[in-house]
Structures are given as structure tokens and as C-alpha cells.
Specification:
It is a single chain. By secondary structure, the protein is an all-alpha fold. The chain contains three helices and no strands. It has helices spanning 5-10, 45-53, 70-82. It is elongated and about 115 Å long.
Length: 84
């Protein structure tokens, strides 16, 4: 089929869709952890005082089984095994 020049001018072909070239996103600067070097030359009196205030904690003996004798503990274990 032949197309006359007049018909071609009346019906122009749509231009091809041209996509822009894909560009990668801008590179982020490399993130590095901040390293702090302590020279140890500075003396902080507040830290020394805080260390002096640290005292050993008391152990709550009521929370444990310190009040049970070994014989009582054996009796409790026997009672538990008989119940099974």
C-alpha cells in the first residue's frame, strides 16, 4: 500500500518516546564511626568521686533458699516425686 505525500502530511506519525538516560543517585559520603582517643591526661574530679560512692550491694537472702536445711530440702524433693 502506498501513501501519498498529502495523506502523510495530514497524519503525522507520533514521535517515539525518548526516555532520559538513567543516572545513578548521587553517592553519599562514606559514613565512618567517630573514634575518640582518650589521652588520659585530663583528670576529672567528678569521676573520682563517683567511683568512691560505689558500694557493694547487699544480697537479699530472703529471695533464696538459705533458710531450708538439707534434710528439709530432701523431704521436699521426695514429696514432689511421690506426687507424680
Amino acid at each position: 500500500m502506498t501513501t501519498s505525500l498529502a495523506t502523510a502530511a495530514d497524519n503525522p506519525t507520533p514521535p517515539e518516546k525518548v526516555e532520559p538516560p538513567i543516572t545513578p543517585p548521587p553517592l553519599e559520603p562514606e559514613e565512618r564511626p567517630i573514634v575518640v582517643h582518650d589521652s588520659g591526661l585530663e583528670n576529672d574530679d567528678d569521676e573520682d568521686e563517683a567511683d568512691d560512692e560505689i558500694k557493694p550491694r547487699k544480697v537479699d537472702e530472703a529471695a533464696g533458699d538459705e533458710g531450708i536445711d538439707d534434710e528439709e530440702e530432701d523431704d521436699l524433693e521426695e514429696d514432689e516425686s511421690e506426687g507424680k
